[in-house]
Amino acid sequence: MSLIENRAAVGPLHRHISLRAEEKILPSVNEMVKTLRPEEPLHCVRPGVISNTAHAFSTAFNGDVLYAVKCNPEPAVLRAVWDGGVRHFDCASISEVQLVRRLFPGAEIHFMHPVKARSAIREAWMLHGVRDFVLDAESELAKIMQELSKPETAKPDTKPGLFIRLALPETGAAINLSKKFGAEPEAAIALLRAARPLAGKLGLAFHVGSQCMDPLAWRDAMQLSGEIIRASGVRVDVLDIGGGFPVAYPDMDPPPLGAFMAEIDAAYDALQMPGLKLWAEPGRALVGGGASVVVQVQMRRGHMLYINDGVYGALADAGALRFRFPTRLLRARATQGAPDAPFGFFGPSCDSLDVMHGPFLLPDDVAEGDWIEIGQLGAYGTCLRTAFNGFDRAALVEVSDRAMLETAGYELPES
After folding, report:
1. Contact 212/172 with Cβ under 8 angstroms?
2. CATH number of 15-45+288-398
3. Which pLDDT score is estimated for 3?
């Protein structure tokens, strides 16, 4: 018997609540709580919101849209993205590649992690039809070409798509994604020149950072990309402008989607490279508003609430990054109500770092047994869950509610 027991890194939550066929999607979170009275965290996916948002982004963007699977690999979410018209997927691991290929045999999969295991390169190429790989170093270029030229993997009539990841200056985004990955401009120029004769398709890629509120960040990055392409002296087929497109949070109100697209379109025109295709890799922007988590209050101490989910579960961003999320109270009993007050949360684990300061606004009479819906958790709400302290139980339902907080440019039509 093997001593290794594999645990799937990408997959659905532990339980998907089974409903009668005619109730595949519940009408609302309120109805769900009334019906199920959940005592464990419950993820409420809004397929209609996700599909509408994916369609809105794809319509506004003048290029190919690659959904960043790392943001939320839950199959119900991936199906909603597909239903919104997205056919390209940005994968960062072989597990993500396997998941997307299993769900969507006809999808276009792109391996956009700059550092990959050799076995992952081989399997993606041979078994899953992946043809595009990103890199930011000479050693990674050599690794990719070595693995694709082996007798068991070689396809003499097929060259890979090779994408050079460019590091960017600070953009003011919530999370800087150029500290870990990306080639500096001179190195990117050299990599473009080295990759051109090896590539069936050559691209330059960048990422302005996660939750970037400034549309001008894309304009500046595209201008820099144009300078690098011209300096390389080689033909570049694709400019991948990455993700980072923001969604609304209680203390973050981004410009509407159209403001970002206007800057991108203007920057593309200024490049004067009509043969250059554009790609984008949105994650949070497509699914952020498409899910919420319902938690239950287990104890109150002043204005700190002990709840049954936390930073080791769906609320990692509320801890380390101090993101504030929209909240609303779902009462376990009939009361008169009270004015809102600021609260913080303690998660269920015994770790004192399992704390989310917020502040989160809730009626001041919130009590043990009440439920709280926490919104904007379609992004990184399910995929960062851990099994720490044994608090890994969670379930999922699909509901037809609107997003708790809508981002300009993605709104659903009035029903």
Report:
1. yes
2. 2.40.37.10
3. 39
